[in-house]
Amino acid sequence: MSPNGIAYLIGSGPGDPGLITVKGLDCLRRADVILYDRLIASSLLDEAPARAERIFVGKESGRHIMPQHEISALLVRLVAEGKVVARLKGGDPVLFGRGGEEAEALAEAGLPFEIVPGVTSAIGAPTYAGIPLTHRSFASTLAIVTGHEDPSKPGTRIDWRALTDIGTLVVLMGHKKLPSIVAQLLEHGRTPETPIALVQWGTHNRQRVLVSTLSDVIEEVRRVNLGSPMVAVVGEVVNLREKLRWFDNRPLFGKRVLVTRAKEQAGTLSALLERHGAEPVEFPVIQMVPPDDLTPLDTAMLGAARYDWVVFTSVNGVKAVIDRLYVLQKDVRVFGSSQLCAIGPATANELGRHGLRPDLMPKEYVAESILESIGDVAGQHVLLPRADIAREALAVELAKRGAQVDEVVAYRTIPSGAAGDTIRAMLVQGELDIITFTSSSTVRNFMAALEGGKTDNEPGQGSAALGPLLAGVKIACIGPITAQTIAEYGLTVHIQAREYTIPGLVDAILEAEKETR
Q1: Are 183 and 196 in contact (CB under 8 A)?
Q2: Which structural domains are found in the chain, ordered by start?
Q3: Active-site residue among 16, 32, 46, 59?
Q4: Catalytic: 308?
Q5: What is the pLDDT of residues 132-182, one digit of tens each?
């Protein structure tokens, strides 16, 4: 038995991955193995080391991938082998979560473990529905009960009569037994007019909330087809929902938005979309890699001080240059007295991260606007560190004005190799509302993925067939150049950013959604 093994029984929260605790995240990032349940957010699994083994042990009503005794035995075996095991459980690990049974198995085997509390759905779901469980004017007592008791127990151990005078009652896992739960409450003193709220998929972007009374709730559940996972809240605090709801009334709530940016760049757009209530679906269709031949870039960097202008047309260009300087054991002093141009605020901010301030940022964030703003460049040396597939218009026009232009490949944009089958299936099922494109390369490679891997970066023969597949989805793009590429595929741009930035794209989506309400 290795002395290094340990199990962390971690509560991941009820759905929103942001609700995991700092300690829970720290334990997850140290794991060799993760045993995870059905409702765990996939983004949490991405926080674990790439080397970590991921084992699904989830359960749902009527179907268990692995019985509880086998999960406990697996935990014991892995820890005994010296593994650091993250047992990732929904909600809180020991509140109706059977984490206590797993801890018992580890304790009986003499193995180390820690229990990391989590936000239980009993608190998280009502809070995200705008229902405070206690309130000085309505409820000073709270009880949490399970609607799914151990079926091997004779009868029920819940004293429904004792719960009659409790201010707020929360029932977990009670979907199937809701009629009998309501009957018990009415039989033991709750009035038919007592407010009840049912929260399905609490804290998720697909959260649904039904507010009713004990007398009407069963019929209304059937009418709106509300299912599990569900949390029930009974008591006068339910009446505060309309005043305090904050989560499911955000402008993009319930919208699924496809993010096609490279994986390392998707986070900014996804975070902004989430802030406004959308559910981002990341499908990176491109990735950034170094050029095949680094000699031109290295030569330009080592002689950067001779340029009058260095023009950066993307954040990626800045990152690629700075990364290369590090490899060359140089720093930003190589630019000497060169003037720097950044095509937009994101590129300017990236320069700022390295102590550089652009001398020029055009009013509009496209190459044409740089030409309008840069002034007389006749006889000047201009460096353009760019992507391998960048448009030639800027270099050509600068040369026409008498500039000596060195255009070097700082990075290459290549297809990510992402299979389009999953996205195609989501489109067929109507599960996507908006698709975002932030560059022409994201358009080309997205279409290639849907066409089955065609990678010639041109509209393929299958493009016309994809039109009906995309018919029910809004297409949002970052600017006119990207819009032009979309049009080449015979598709309609529904939303176009006025400011050609990621925040500008999100603002345009918000404006468009506001108009449709």
Answers
A1: no
A2: 6-119 (3.40.1010.10), 123-244 (3.30.950.10), 256-285+416-516 (3.40.50.10090), 290-413 (3.40.50.10090)
A3: 59
A4: no
A5: 999 999 999 999 999 876 545 556 678 999 998 899 999 998 888 999 999
